[in-house]
Each structure stands twice: as structure tokens, then as C-alpha cells.
Amino acid sequence: MRVAIAGAGAVGRSIAGELLENGHEVLLIDKAPTAISVERVPQAEWLLADACEITSLDEAALQRCNVVIAATGDDKVNLVISLLAKTEYGVPRVVARVNNPKNEWLFNESWGVDVAVSTPRLMSALVEEAVSVGDLVRLLRFSHGDANLVELTLPEESALAGTQVGDVEWPQDTSLVTIIRGTRVLTPTREDSLEAGDELLFVAAQAREEQLEDLLSVRREDAKG
């Protein structure tokens, strides 16, 4: 997979290193000469250019990329890069960094963004996830289809504890994608049973999140009544 990363700061270089370790081709783009540190990520391709300029993106052969990551520290720049990548070059997957949570509402398909990653929101979500049981925590927002990656730790008193996945009437527009049980990561089947303490990861439409939380958190005595 070929990935272009706009923004060769600490965030961009860190992402590049991870992708290279996993066998992907990576191109780092930055307009600041001081950011071009080939020795820090020598396996990557480097391009000194303004990723907001069509000529620069032509030089980067963006049409050959499977993914573009807009990882600069400027939200306006990330939006422009995302829009150009999607509309001018037809890049299948565009991921954009959100620096200011107040701007998060802009990072959607109208600007070519498939996945918006807000570091402040993600950090707060991870804190919530670590201390919350029975509460739905939004980890990541996908622009297309207005869907989110959400997590809930099944509480001891949940009526669904001990229930097989296939016997649960899940809300519309939700999909259980992973069960994390201790150190195990399970791909759920209809025969798998839910257990108290399971971390459940869903892709769910935002409009269904409250319904999903109510379903998972309902107490046994409430269900009986």
C-alpha cells in the first residue's frame, strides 16, 4: 500500500515509521526545509513541497496513493489537502488530523475526509474508556455514513451477560466488530457468548448510540420486569 503523509513533524514521522514497519510504501511531504529530516525516517520517500499546491501533488503522484494522511499542525491546511486528495486525485482513503476540537465538525466528506482523528478527543475518550463501565465511549468518527467507532465495557449486572451474540436484537445500523476479553481479541460469531467485563467495539450510526447504550446497560432486574 502506498501512503502519502502531508506534514513531516513528530506526528507525521511517527505514523510513517509505523507504516514502514508494516511493509507499506510511505511518502513524507513538507514545505519547511527544517522538517525534511531524511535521516530520521530513511526508508521513506521525502518531498520538499507545499501539499496545498496542485503542482506539488502532481509531483507526489498522489493518484498512485491508496491513502493520504493530512497530519500537519494546521487544520485549514489539513482540510485543503484532504479536499484536493479526494476530488482531484480520487484517493480512496483520506485521514485527517484535527488539531482544534472546535473544528471537528468541518472534517467530513464535504471536505474529502473519510476519517478524522482528534488527538484531544481521542485522549479524553481513552481516559473515559479506562474508568467507565456501562457507558458508551466514542473512540473515532467516520465521515461517510455518519458512523462512529464506539466502545462499551459490559457491566456485571447487564441483562446481556451470558447471552449469545446471535440472540441479541441489535439496533439497526450497528455492527459488533470486536470483543476484547482479557488479553484476547475475538472476532464475534453468532455462537459467542457475551461476558461481564467484555470490552465491546461497535461501528454504529450516531443516531443509534443511545439505543445501543441502553440495550447493553440494562440491568437484569429491569429486563425481568
UniProtKB/TrEMBL annotation:
Q: Which Pfam families match?
A: TrkA_C, TrkA_N
Q: Domain RCK N-terminal, which positions?
A: 1-117
Task: Provide the RCK C-terminal domain boundaries.
Answer: 137-218
Q: Which Gene3D superfamilies match?
A: NAD(P)-binding Rossmann-like Domain, Regulator of K+ conductance, C-terminal domain
| Keyword vocabulary terms for this entry | Ion transport, NAD, Potassium, Potassium transport, Transport
Domain of life the protein comes from = Bacteria
Task: Work out whether the entry's keyword set contains Transcription regulation.
Answer: no
In the UniProt record, the signal sequence range is none
Q: What is this protein called?
A: Trk system potassium uptake protein TrkA
Species the sequence originates in: Streptomyces fuscus
